[in-house]
Amino acid sequence: MPILESDFSPTLPFKNGHFNTMYRPLFMKDTCNYLRKRITTWDHDFIDLDFSLVGSKTLVLLIHGLEGSSESKYMASTSNHLNKKGLDTVCFNLRSCSGEDNLLLATYHSGKTEDVDFVIYHLLKTYNYDNLIIVGFSLGGNLTLKYLGEYQQKLSEKIKGGIAISVPIDIASAEVEMEKLKNKLYIELFFKTMKNKVLEKAFKFPEYKLDKGKLFKATKFKHLEHLYTVPVFGFKNPEDYWTKASSKPYISKIDRPTLLINAKDDTFLSAACYPRKEALTSKNFYLEIPDYGGHVGFMSSFKPNENIWLELRIERFIEDHIRIPLS
């Protein structure tokens, strides 16, 4: 499809990518009253799903980013907005992210689409919905795009499309970008919780031989992948993980309306994370590249009622391209 022209035009301080990235988590007050349902997985673990229901025949599955949860401001604000437009939502808390540690040594990673497939199968089997839409943010957006392409041949007809926001679709080059000085603060914030989770897993599972010295010295995602992701999930090395988990190779297989919104000033993303060629040659994949927005930011001004551009954009794509009418 043609690359979509963006109408996102924020006021001055929000034209700074870092400012826009940090404003939402630090200053927005969004909360949502969820109904939690815990489901048991095939491998004797659990996943917590947080529903926000208004009696719709359409359900929107929201998937958060790295170390996020249903409580992340972008998850709550999207749930609230879509509820107002007449759609039910359910937030998928990735394993270990719901406020309670999961039961297994393995948690989640950028390409773990078998969990997405399990959750979607459960939702369609258990609840009486006519339509399901997937909306993913950052790592959750990578899962969304990868799932829609990887599982394309066996997707239910009830899955009508997807929307992905601020997505590192090419993990190898995005990690190189994240290692730059401009992203040092973000790495430190991520590592604060990630290192604690790995330490807790090592305590609970003595058979997992963690080199704690290396963990404390870790300063790159690659270091954590060597220590945890690779051995726990069975990858050969970080490079093998990057190749197998990235959603970019699957975009061309997507067969239903899907939108990717990646801001030009997103400091997390490399040039390879803007798949112009894939958009131009696909009948179903749309790409929008706003000049501004940061990483899962897209804040417009200091006035809270003006800070719903992203929610309105999701709404508009659902109506115009997925073709589900909203109230």
Salient structural properties:
single chain, about 325 residues, alpha/beta, Rossmann fold, 8-stranded mixed β-sheet, 11 helices, about 35% helix, about 15% strand, globular
Describe this protein's structure.
The protein has about 325 residues and is of the alpha/beta class. The protein folds into 2 domains: about 10-170 and about 250-320, Alpha/Beta hydrolase fold, catalytic domain (Rossmann fold, 3-Layer(aba) Sandwich); about 170-245, no CATH class. About 35% of the residues lie in helices and about 15% in strands. It has 11 helices and 8 strands. The protein has helices at about 15-25, 75-85, 115-125, 140-150, 170-180, 185-205, 210-215, 220-235, 240-245, 275-280, 310-320; strands spanning about 35-40, 45-50, 60-65, 90-95, 130-135, 160-165, 260, 285-290. An 8-stranded mixed beta sheet has the order 1-2-4-3-5-6-7-8, sandwiched between helices. Strand 5 (about 130-135), helix 4 (about 140-150) and strand 6 form a beta-alpha-beta unit. Helix 3 (about 115-125) packs across helix 4. The radius of gyration is 19 Å and the shape is globular. The chain starts with 16 loop residues before the first helix and ends in a 7-residue tail after the last helix. The mean pLDDT is about 95.
